[in-house]
Amino acid sequence: AMASLPKTMKGVVIEKTGGTEVLQYKTDLPVPEPKEGEVLVKNEFIGVNYIDTYFRTGLYPAPSFPYILGREGSGTIAATGPNPPHSLAPGTRVAWMGASAYAEYTAVDAAFCIAIPDSISLRDAAAAILQGLTALTLIREAHYVSPGDWVLVHAAAGGVGLWLCQLLRAAGARTIATASTAEKRELARRHGAEVLLEYHGGEEPGAAEAFAKEVVRIADGKGVVAVFDGVGKATFDASLASLRSKGTMVSFGNASGPVPPVAIARLSPKNLRLMRPTLFSYLTTREEFEKYANELWDFMTKGKMDANVHDTYPLQDVARAHQDLEGRKTTGKLLLQP
Ligand code: NDP
């Protein structure tokens, strides 16, 4: 079944961790061979996620070197391994999550590869799958959002952020959101956030409390029932202070750096819950992945949710994509095209 496939392909590898200079564009990488339970996807669009920068810098350890970055893509099935477990025949348009996406071809675990409805483009599917599923699992599993819930979302104009705004609006929640510029705040507002705030003033004493005082005032004088915080270090204190009694702190990322160790006694005055969830641990089975992915396709088609592609970069311009993302120059989704 591999007869018509090339032997080599374009892709981006890292051989060590560091700045964007460690991203190496190659044209002679071996095309992977799909093993039992895998399908070979010819990637049309590759999603850039903040997590890719963590693997590049070494904040998260790469399993081995050389390592191909990237956790998601969309394209068509080029070949299957022995005994493909699902109806993923060659030629099927698919979106997938896994590893080694920054390449023309990826051997993907078939359990986390799903057909795309005809009405959704390959571009939108790649833009949606990882960040959309992150937002969806966060509002279902980390804190089940109910109509009328006041919640706080940081970096609301980002990739995950715009999905959170849209899904929270659909869930009937009332969203207070932060973003760093007036344009970003306006974008988050158009996608469903109700009240937009600037970030608090950083490390100065009292800044977190002053921010939280405003959140509490807006949220019925009590504070929010949940915070969805992908910014991490810079916002953690303000987020905790913004919660009402028995609220839930969902810390799901480190865009500003990892949250330092927390003394759990800090949770006692308000009996808070603290969560540190990750998408790949919510979607561990085919059933979980399919359920949420199909729900996401429905939100995009029937709910008219927007995939918000900021830009599509040629794969060889991957360094610029990372610089733009880390430099806070982007909104929504960054894609690469091989
Ligand atoms: P984004 O598109 O949200 O980009 C990051 C944004 O964070 C920036 O645009 C910026 O928005 C904001 N930000 C705040 N402080 C900083 C800083 N010091 N440096 C850089 N950016 C900063 O990225 P993603 O949607 O890919 O990811 C968002 C977060 O969610 C990340 O922390 C990521 O790791 C996490 N994540 C976690 C997952 C999980 O399973 N736990 C899955 C997917 C994502 P602004 O300018 O408005 O501040």
UniProtKB/TrEMBL annotation:
Provide any one GO MF term from the record.
mRNA 3'-UTR AU-rich region binding
Determine if NADP is one of this entry's keywords: yes
All copies of the Enoyl reductase (ER) domain together span 18-336
Q: Which GO terms describe its cellular component?
A: cytosol
Q: For this UniProt record, give its keywords in alphabetical order, as a comma-separated list.
A: NADP, Oxidoreductase
Pfam families, per database record? ADH_N (PF08240), ADH_zinc_N (PF00107)
- Which Gene3D superfamilies does its entry note? Medium-chain alcohol dehydrogenases, catalytic domain, NAD(P)-binding Rossmann-like Domain
Q: Which InterPro entries match?
A: ADH-like_C, ADH-like_N, ER, GroES-like_sf, NAD(P)-bd_dom_sf, QOR-like, Quin_OxRdtase/zeta-crystal_CS
Descriptive protein name: Probable quinone oxidoreductase
Cited SUPFAM superfamilies: GroES-like, NAD(P)-binding Rossmann-fold domains
**Key word ATP-binding present in the record?**
no
